[in-house]
Amino acid sequence: MSAHVFSNTGVMLNRSIRHVTRSMDTIITVTIMPIAFMLLFRYVFGGAIQSNTDNYTNYLMPGILLIAIASGISYTGFRLFNDMQSGIFERFHSMPIARSSVLWGHVLTSLVSNAISVVVIIIVGLLMGFRSSAGVLAWLAIAGILILFTLALTWVAMIAGLAASTTDGATAFSYPLIFLPFLSSAFVPTATMPGPVKAFAENQPVTSIVNTLRALLEQQPVGNGIWTAVAWCAGILIVAYLFAMRTYRRKIA
Amino acid sequence: MQAPPLAIHIKGLHKSYGKVQVLKGVDFSVASGSIFALLGSNGAGKTTVVRILSTLLKQDSGTANVSGFDVLAQPEQVRESISLTGQFAAVDPILTGRENLIMVAKLRQVKNSGRVAHDLLQRFSLTEAGGRRVATYSGGMRRRLDIAMSLIGDPPVIFLDEPTTGLDPEARIEVWEEIQSLAGKGTTILLTTQYLEEAEKLADRIAILHQGTIIVNGTLTELRQLLPPAKAELVERQPTLEEIFLAIVGNKEARS
């Protein structure tokens, strides 16, 4: 059976990608909001923010990308939830296929659709003056961290999609994730924040990820920050995966 | 003469959800190539039996065999030999009818999935609708597509969980005809239904599931014998509303 796991996952990915491309409104929602934030920060707040940089669009970019991914994964939870509700999940589970392909199809779709919105946002950023001198290796590192971040949040979304009893429940978990970048170094330097907020901002995952991405884009040394960022993503990924699988097994038991 | 091999064999099946005992020792067997109707009111546990047989749910105790495979010990072999058509049409509304069929054919490793989809669309009168998204289909069309998806890969045993619930009379008759033609080709069919007429019309054997156990199991003739013999009375039989409805809308039953 497991011999077909790749073929099965391919079919599931194909199906779920069609769900994405046939509801363009989800792609638009996922990219429009971060782009709106980018415009707002660049052209409205940007003048007042002391970021110690001559290109504020460059400064914004990492945080905007993380916001896009955090809102993108809520649709992953939504699509999985719909499958659970509609009975097609049970149809797949009563078929002679690798059962894991049902979940992995959603995970891969999440990676693909988030990659699309990341590329769209970078293109819009370029129009707004975003420039990077990063080389191939640095870009590979950026892609690697974004993929790891997407995977980690996708498995959080899988928990919500599996466990939720309403559509709202399957998507609402992403709201706090979308706002996490605002309490980080994504838009303003943490040094300007009052004590407790600063302490939170400096020790939450988004700050280390944003700082690492920013350093890679600006060709600055990443220091140990990159390992903190990777450790956060890997840690969230492992914990979320274990919880998702536990929820999954309870659902199919 | 040897008895035909059993496609489904269930013994002492128990299942509880929390404190609610749904199945309290269910036993029955279904001969290969026959239509077996599991009759019961809502909440009698019919769907629970079907879910256990299709490896979606584990029983608390008792054994269940499908095509000779134990549902707990050999779930993959069981899934190879069955297809499930659930109570709520399990089709993908965002894909077209054709894409739904191709998807199932590819998952079942059936070669030439495009051809298979084409033939099934034709057989279920969905050729014209095949390129449209399923979200635009009527209830009857969805159910036909659902059954068509279940036939891919020619599984020897098919579970139809309330296949005609929510269908209009014409659509119901279409589904009935398809079930009969399947059984004619040697497929074993386990049908759950709450419509007595459906069981009477289709099933070789009928079992009634009531409060967690099978209280009656036999052919229609055997079941009739449980009641006092019929008396001959001259009564003018009024047409049923269903007969009137079908006569007016130009029913398709007239053809057969």
What keywords describe this structure?
heterodimer; A: 253 residues; mainly alpha; 11 helices; B: 256 residues; alpha/beta; Rossmann fold; six-stranded mixed β-sheet; four-stranded antiparallel β-sheet; 9 helices; 25% strand
Q: Please name the CATH topology of chain B.
A: Rossmann fold
Specify the CATH class of chain B: Alpha Beta
Number of helices of chain B: 9
Question: Which structural category do the helix and sheet elements of chain B fall into?
Answer: alpha/beta
Fraction of helical residues of chain A: over 70%
**Number of H- or I-type helical stretches of chain A:** 11
Oligomer: heterodimer
Strand elements of chain A, count = 0
Largest sheet of chain B: 6 strands, mixed
Main β-sheet of chain A: number of strands, strand sense, barrel status? none
Q: What are the segments of chain A in which pLDDT stays under 50 over at least 5 consecutive residues?
A: none
List SSEs of chain A in N-to-C order. HHHHHHHHHHH
Averaged pLDDT of chain A: 88
Shape descriptor of chain A: elongated
Identify the strand order in the major beta sheet of chain B.
6-7-8-3-9-10
**CATH homologous group name of chain B:** P-loop containing nucleotide triphosphate hydrolases
Layout: helices, strands, pairs:
The complex is a heterodimer of chains A (253) and B (256).
Chain A: H1 5-21, H2 24-45, H3 56-86, H4 88-93, H5 100-127, H6 136-163, H7 167-172, H8 174-179, H9 195-203, H10 205-217, H11 225-252
Helix pairs in contact in A: 1-5, 2-3, 2-5, 3-5, 3-6, 3-10, 5-6, 6-10, 6-11, 10-11
Chain B: E1 6-17, E2 20-31, E3 35-39, H1 46-53, E4 61-66, E5 69-70, H2 75-81, E6 82-85, H3 97-107, H4 113-123, H5 139-151, E7 157-161, H6 169-184, E8 188-193, H7 196-202, E9 205-210, E10 213-218, H8 220-225, H9 241-248
Parallel strand pairs in B: 3-8, 3-9, 6-7, 7-8
Antiparallel strand pairs in B: 1-2, 1-4, 4-5, 9-10
